[in-house]
Specification:
The chain has eleven helices and six strands. The protein is mainly α. This is Glucosaminidase domain-containing protein.
């Protein structure tokens, strides 16, 4: 899938640039301009469908249920229940952790890509229809975006190595209670009693703390991306990821993700480098076309 997706994105960018240039050349309201724009939009819709992706959902009752990775194309498996890895030897535990988390990360990133492509299609429309407008309003609300330019930035992703390192740090390599009981990979808090959640053992200023429960690891990663997109403390991180894909450069903008600040960044750096996690940045999902 790696080459087709990159080719799709590259082609899409070219077509959008052509659309913008033709729109600038023709005067506003010019029928020829409107016709050209519609033709470009139609072309984009034809070249942007996502490769077929069949996700396998399954629970983990023991580490033996975790499917081994087959790089560089990773089978799309969604685990709905996890099992502790605490009893495993360190190197085995880490590999099982990657096997378990990586598919969910790649599936979630694929979903973001699909949203970015849809946004590009809508931006190419002379006048977005009612369905397109409804989709936009839903995304604006979810990601706290004011317009399509801001939404585009919030729909971006970042290197897989960063996400895996955060997952390892937040879950203690898959051993935390939040992870084992609620599929909560990133320690995301809950502020609403209306959503599935669990109570933490500690309190904050005498008040109970709750964290979210998720139905699968994919849902947890999806929510992680929303958290990064919405949070004010991650504004500099979002800006930086639009300028570089260097994981070790980007992590220094995640100092607000944890109360330990710069120490959190140093721990992420150590996890990434010691476990040679930059290799995961080139891994892609296996699609039906690649099977």
């Amino acid at each position: 899938m790696y080459l087709p997706v990159k080719a799709t994105i590259a082609t899409l960018v070219v077509l959008l640039l052509i659309t913008l240039s033709l729109t600038r050349l023709a005067p506003p309201g010019d029928p020829a301009s409107e016709k050209t724009t519609k033709q470009q939009s139609s072309m984009i819709q034809k070249i942007s469908p996502q490769p077929a992706l069949t996700i396998t959902y399954k629970p983990i009752h023991s580490p033996d249920d975790i499917e081994a990775l087959t790089p560089p194309l990773i089978k799309p498996v969604a685990y709905t229940r996890v099992s502790t890895l605490a009893a495993l030897e360190v190197s085995t535990k880490k590999q099982k952790f990657f096997d378990m988390i990586l598919p969910a990360v790649l599936i979630s990133k694929q979903r973001l890509l699909a949203k970015r492509i849809k946004l590009a299609e809508i931006n190419a429309m002379p006048t977005p229809d009612e369905k397109a407008q409804a989709w936009l309003q839903k995304q604006f609300k979810l990601y706290k975006a004011k317009d399509t330019t801001q939404l585009k930035s919030k729909l971006a992703d970042h290197p897989t190595s960063i996400i895996l390192a955060q997952a390892a740090l937040e879950t203690g390599w898959g051993t935390s209670r939040f992870f084992l009981e609620g599929n909560n990979i990133f320690g995301v808090w809950s502020f609403s009693a209306k959503e599935p959640r669990m109570r933490a053992s500690q309190t904050r200023e005498g008040k109970p703390i709750y964290v979210k429960r998720y139905s699968s690891l994919i849902e947890a990663v999806d929510d992680y991306f929303v958290t990064i997109a919405r949070g004010g403390p991650y504004r500099q991180f979002r800006k930086a990821r639009s300028q570089t894909r260097d994981a070790l450069e980007l992590i220094k903008y995640l100092n607000y993700y944890s109360e330990i600040g710069d120490e959190y960044v140093q721990r992420l750096r150590s996890i990434i480098t010691r476990n040679k996690m930059l290799r995961f940045d080139s891994y892609q999902l296996q699609t039906a076309d690649a099977i």
